[in-house]
# Entry
Amino acid sequence: MITIKKVENLDEKTRITLEIMNALPEWFSPPEDIVNKSVIHREYPFIAAFDGDKAVGFAALKIHNEYTADIYNFGVLREYHRMGIGHQLMEVCVQFCKERHFNFLTVKTLDESALYEPYNGTRAFYRKEGFYSLEVFTTFWDEDNPCLFMVKVIGRV
# Structure
């Protein structure tokens, strides 16, 4: 049975980040970036999905301001894809935002102009979850990795 819970322990946030991001090299790399994110996540609200005691997915949220939170990182182990776990994680993220009266939940992902197959499913997932494409930033990360900025309306604007 899958359970979703907010993780408060800093070392657990780091451990989960490293385990899941390192298991998903198609989406997360290079290794030094994964280590850096495992430290950054310690400061962010962090929600994880567990299959028993095993962490199988996570979401790290960055709070931008009184109106907006951002899905800073989001990942589900490949063998748990298409089982509704991402949706369950997203529901908890949205509830977190509603409780804090945020109006928007944003995410940045690889734009389709990069022609990288693993992200086709990522963009489809976010669209299915109610995110809208707003803008593509061609040099946000670098020219080979155009950034698609997406938003989901959470509350009244």
